[in-house]
Amino acid sequence: MNDILAKILDTKRTEVATARQMRSESEVLREAQSRQDIRGFARAIEDKIAQGKPGVIAEIKRASPSKGVIREDFRPADIAASYACHGAACLSVLTDVQYFQGGYDHLRQARAACSLPVLRKDFLIDPYQVIHARALGADCILLIAAALAPAQMRELETVAADLGMDVLVEVHDREELDAALSLNTPLVGINNRNLRTFETRLETTLAMLKDVPAGKRVVTESGILLPEDADRMREYGVQAFLVGEAFMRAPDPGTALHELFFAR
Ligand SMILES: O=P(O)(O)OC[C@@H](O)[C@@H](O)c1c[nH]c2ccccc12
């Protein structure tokens, strides 16, 4: 497996080992537990949908391995404030440094600039990272089914739940969906992008929809670029969206959010 996902996961194993040496898990846990500021992530999405609006998770990312640098003028606090005032339900902030040019400060600054719940967008493989997510202020974590065994996902979900965080579990095919459905979380992200090849097809979401039981909330992820893309998803009953690039390339990300979802 010399694909990009495998490479990223190797990097993460090294990162976790280094982080543990710098600061013990019990110390990070104390910091995480001392925070009393959790914001309901799944709740915020459901509230939007109950109001007849799309539940938009608006992403803050400077670069990606498939696209390189996406946004030069990168100020997380300004972007977060713009998203918040244009109707985002939640934020997603990349914290991976090496592949996405993200950072812990991006999450801290974005969250401090608004009152939206925040997803830590990273490749989580170890309880240490989940605990650290809450210490940073995250309200939700991402679990990527392509990167984790089912038992590992369940373990990380339990760690997140114990800290009051929500979980977004991400899948790309049927087998991953089966594993994801063994979790408690209602939030199931269907990634239209294959993390191994970067191929992006909106049909990925549409084809898997019928296999997601009632009671789960589908979030369509990646490659939503045009109002037509959002409309197409809505025709199929998809009401929650995770969008990055379309907003990051626009002069004002929040205005782009408005145009993609609310302009007609
Ligand atoms: O920028 P896009 O195509 O709108 O996609 C956003 C989001 O779905 C994408 O960044 C993403 C989905 N799953 C991930 C896992 C890791 C890193 C990034 C991602």
Could you walk me through the main structural features you see in this protein, from its secondary elements to its overall organization?
This protein has 264 residues and is an alpha/beta fold. The chain is built from twelve helices and ten strands. The strands form two sheets. It has an eight-stranded parallel beta barrel with strand order 1-4-5-6-7-8-9-10, surrounded by six helices. Strands 2-3 form a two-stranded antiparallel sheet. The radius of gyration is 17 Å and the shape is globular. Indole-3-glycerol phosphate binds next to strand 10 and helix 11.
DSSP strand count: 10
- Placed side by side, the strands forming the largest sheet appear as 1-4-5-6-7-8-9-10
Note the overall shape: globular
Report the biggest beta sheet as strand number plus sense, adding barrel if it closes. Answer: 8 strands, parallel, barrel
Q: Strand portion, in percent?
A: 15-25%
Order of helices and strands: HHHEEEHEHEHEHEHEHEHEHH
**Can you list the ligands bound to this structure?**
indole-3-glycerol phosphate
C-alpha-based Rg, rounded: 17 Å
Unreliable residue stretches: none
